[in-house]
Amino acid sequence: MTEVAQSPTTGPTPSSIQRSARISGFKRLARYTGIKFITLLFTIVIGVYLTIIIANMGGEVDNIRRGAIRENVALQVSMDTELRRLPQAERTQVIEERVRVEEQRLGMDRPFILRSFTFLLDAMTLSLGRAQQMTSDSGSSQVRLIILERLPHTLVLFSTANLLIFFSGVFIALFLSRRYGSWFDRAVIALAPTSAAPGWFYGIFLILIFAAVLQVLPFGGAVSAPVPDTTIGYLLSLLQHMILPVSAIMMATLMITIYSWRTFFLIFSSEDYVDMAKAKGLSSNQIEQRYILRPTLPNIITNFALLIITLWTGQIILETVFNWPGLGRLYYRAIGAFDSPVIVGNTVIYAYLLGMTVFLLDFLYALVDPRVKVGGAEGPKV
Amino acid sequence: MKAFKNALKEIGRYPSAIVGLVIILGLVSVALYAVVTIPYNEAVRLWRGGAGVWGDYPKNAAPAWFNWFSDQQKPETIILDTTDGTATKVSQALGTNIDTIMTFTFDYTADTFPDELTLHFTSLYIEKQPHISMKWITPDGRELRMSQLSVRHTDTYRFALDERLARRMDGLPVNQGLFAQPDTDPPQVLKGTYTLEVSALKFEPDSVVDAKLVVFGTVHGLAGTDHVRRDLMVAILYGAPVALAFGLLAALGTNVLTMIIAATSTWFGGVVDDVIQRITEVNLVLPFLPILIMIGTLYSRAIWTILGAVIALSIFSTSIKTYRAIFLQVKEAPYIEAARSYGASNFRIIFRYLIPRIVPVLIPGLVLGIPSYVFLEASLAVLGLGDPVLPTWGKVINDAYAQGALFNQHYYWILLPAVLLMITGLAFSMVGFALDRIFNPRLRGV
Questions:
Q1: Is the pLDDT of residue B376 over 70?
Q2: Is the pLDDT at B2 greater than 70, yes or no?
């Protein structure tokens, strides 16, 4: 990718100039990425802070922290051999006293506006407190552990679906732009409105057809019930369970994605330099890769970043519908159990995930957009 | 105004848009019908009223029209009541007591067995409870006697729980044994006229006994029923106005506010513009649904609270950039300069000169936005954050999912609301796509 990106600056120039151009290109790339990183970090901080403000309007974060303090103190007292022998009333007094001291030490008596920054620091460093009822599969009630246990499942499903969407989207859109006006092209345009429905919605129909009626694929879950003991068996089972959710995401997004990317390709293939390349007699493969795909790619990535943001949202419900043991399903269970620490913690993780995906795409953008390296116009406004 | 007339004319050139418009009109009329015939309080009562409202409906029954597509006719619920004349009641003196004979006669023509049978008694007495004995007469003349019992003021006799009756069923469940042809395996329904004779012996002269026989079917109404016997038609009908109102208000609220913000941002420029641009960028990466979930869990699930939160979270959307680009052009137009030279206020310029110019651009976005909000409401309901009192399509799907409807093959339960959501979404989206092409001519070429 980097070599191709260099092509506008290469040519019959002395190697020294070329090298300095490459270094300055690298500097610009680093600066661009750095700025994006700081901007997104700032965005995540705001997102998390907003989460805390919303969550604490009913005093919810305070309750979470008070609960955690009380539990810790009670545990300490019950572990202490001397204090354990005290009569009930005295022991309660000791606990109350220690809770008071601990709350004071942690600044629970300070005004909320000051404390909110402590919360922010806690949330940013992922010390998310303890769950009220839920536990992780390994038995811990630490919200961070509960969430980290689910994260891999979410990431596997999400990245598979998105990689598939990206590559099949680019491929089919390019194909359609070549066959502009064919019946296939018109079919895609006609089907574009079907993307109005989210993935979970198609998921219901897919489950109905393939799991309930045809009984060829599982209803949901990530692996079959006795977990296969070989790695290959596990992977195959995972793959089998991923077919329906991934297809549901694709059904909900692919048509509109192809439709808009095909429009980008059409716009760029009507540029004069494409006609010029045709006149020079370049092969259609070369024209496509060098003169159409290259300049369109930054636009596509920007569009894809927007798509991915909405997909992260849809993932929560998709996992619920497919019983997929990821973060979304965790939300559903936490709502059912009214476990607010888990809900707040999950929101913080989502803020991080969104920020990180957008950063990743920004980085990709910087790699493929020559303007970032040679200066000139700014990057995408995502 | 002329632009709108032209637009309407042009819509005729897109068949999909016409289909969409027809569907939208249909939905709107269903919604109006629902709101007119079932007032808000009545809808809430029908959906949350308790067993008194839906006690006589069957459980998990499919819609009645399923029978049209099946060669096996499933029974509908049969209700016979001595108080409304569908069953007869004859009294005769028996010494100092009175014997009232209530006869419930009905034709059973379905091919499958009913779900269950119950007999509800209501009686008036001062001290001595009336004594009941019952006899089941099949079309081929067999007679089955059931346990005898004394009834309180209100009492329910469930056929399936009568052990004496169960012993005479040759190992079949009571609901099958009562209707089965003798010596068939698998059991076949004996069609014909069945009679239940209930004799109530009353020991007081002023004593009154009435009874209601309910033979629960396995199909019900146009939409079927759910696991607590609620008629799904209520939710299907009332879901339409809720979905349309939510989608329309959310789309209108976000788009109009976004446009006003974009206009303000462009008009004032400078710091205001910068701040609004930065807010937009931050807002884009905020976890939208998680924040909504938090609001739903920690504060209120009422649909209007959620609507407010949705609008508040979506006004700084990416469409600000689109609107801004257009406003930047409009801002330089001579008529704006003219307005400024005669001393028009900022407010007046924004609302009277800038915004009206881009209303045509707003319309496709607004229509295209409706489906996403309709589905958002359903999504929240599927997560268990639906409005606590109102029946909506999403809540039906949520109930069905929680009860494993797909696994238990109650497909109608999910299909009806899902298909309605789909139709709503598609209709608005088809019209929106057409409007987009009409109002944004640069798309027309590609």
A1: yes
A2: no
Residues A299, A365: Cα–Cα separation, whole Å: 9
Main-chain dihedrals φ then ψ at residue B92, nearest 5 degrees: -145, 150
ipTM tops the 0.90 cut: no
- B298 and A60 within 8 Å at the Cβ level: the answer is yes
Distances in Å between the alpha carbon of B92 and those of B31, B82, B83, B124?
54, 16, 18, 17
Residues A320, B383: C-beta atoms closer than 8 Å: yes
- Residues 6 or more apart whose Cβ sits within 8 Å of residue B22: none
Nearest-by-Cβ selection for A46 from B282, B421, B422: B282
Name all contacts of A7-14 with Cβ < 8 Å and 24+ positions apart.
A8/A370, A8/A374, A9/A374
- Measured CA to CA, the distance from residue B346 to residue A194 in angstroms comes to 42
Give the gap in angstroms from C-alpha B441 to the nearest C-alpha of chain A. 14
Helices (H) and strands (E) in chain B, counts: 16, 10
DSSP secondary structure code for residue A73 in this structure? H
- Partners of A344 on chain B (C-beta within 8 Å) are 294
**CB atoms A43 and B293 under 8 Å:** no
Show Cβ contacts of residue A85 under 8 Å, excluding neighbours closer than 6 positions. none
Residues B293, A347: C-beta atoms closer than 8 Å: yes
> SS3 for B14?
coil
Which of the pair, A161 or B401, is modelled with greater confidence? A161
Distance in Å, alpha carbon of B244 to nearest chain A alpha carbon: 15
Would you call A344 and B409 a contact, using CB atoms and an 8 Å cutoff? no
- DSSP-assigned states of every residue in A244-307: HHHHHHHHHHHHHHHHHHHHHHHHHHTSHHHHHHHHHT--HHHIIIIIIIHHHHHHHHHHHHHH
Q: What is the pLDDT of residue B29?
A: 92
Cβ contact B426–A196 (<8 Å): yes
First to last CA, chain A: 22
Chain A residues touching residue B287 (CB < 8 angstroms): 47, 51, 312-313, 347, 350-351, 354
